[in-house]
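Weekly sync notes, structure subgroup
Attendees: PM, AL, DS (notes)

Item 1: joint prediction request from the bench team. They want all two components modeled as one assembly rather than separately. Inputs as received:
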Amino acid sequence: MTWIEGRFEENVITTSLEQAINWAKQSSIWPMTFGLACCAIEMMATGASRYDIDRFGAGAFRATPRQADLMIVAGTVTFKMASRVRRLWEQMPDPKYVIAMGACTVGGGPYFKYGYHVVKGVDLVVPVDVYVPGCPPRPEALLEGLMRIQDKIKAQRITKGNASQLPVPHHSGYVQEPEIVTV
Amino acid sequence: MAGARRRRAAPFPDSFRPFSTVTINEIHSRLVQQFGDQITGLNATATDPWIEVAPARWDEVALYLRDDEALRFDSLTNLTGVDYLETDPKKAPKFGHEPHLEVVFHLYSFVHRCRLVVKVKLPRWKNDVPGEIPDCPSVAHIWSIADWHEREAYDLVGINFTGHPNLVRILCVEDWVGHPLRKDYEFPLEYHGIRGK
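Output from the run, pasted for the record:
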């Protein structure tokens, strides 16, 4: 809270609009209630009282993608799940952020060589902002990942448009609609 | 009253047999008597003794195993598909098995408290045509748990359970190609554009 120090004068806060907006944004990153495998257990531990992700304003796990700002992909993404992950990501409103949590989502992890069914990194399906390695990562590591998301929000400048746009993967994993033939 | 230890009644009635008295040889001789050459093998010395049954009339044998008064194997505890194949040419001479598929059924009788392992040997491909998966009679109408187990064995190992009510993939996506737990399965290079390697 360094920037706010000494700025209170008779209940008046002087700050820049940019800082105020970024402060509000970074302090209310609501993640989606969404876990795929064992990393989700660690994500739940991060949300629980010992590690308490709510200290960073990210404890309001939303049960719908339409209210969420952050998708923590916690767990192995299979080919079968890839299109669902992509659809959830598409349903989230902008600005949205993605944390790839754990070795499986970073690059296939233990399934890299002999997993016939595992997507070799969730960044093949959705754009990833922060990678948190580990198998599974400690809650501290996930909190660190969240703080890197906050850094990213802090760096946004309202005058210069979006600071960085991640490329969206071309392939979504959707199964093509079968051709309907009417006789 | 207090302190007076009463002798406890026998914990089980006399008819209760804590361990099975039915031996694998008895089961085998009963089956041979009933089905003759359909019972193709017996291994009584293994940790889990098993009986091998020819696939042609396996569903009838299964029904007999379930309903015969002396057997009453009323529970199918496990159903597995096994692919016997060594793809490494260096290790192949020491492998010790002809390439084949096996369906392994673990049965349990709650009436007689005994277990039985039944193996059904199948060729890896029907009529030795690669891509044509072999047939095995379904036992889903005998033990209803076999429904999903057979779907899994079909999905991953590639065994066509004839007479199954709904033989579709249970784990892989509907449009998946091949049966992933076959030893000679080749990994897909991509799935709908997502690269697989």
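Discussion: DSSP finds three helices and nine strands in chain B.
Action: AL to compare against the crosslinking data before next sync.
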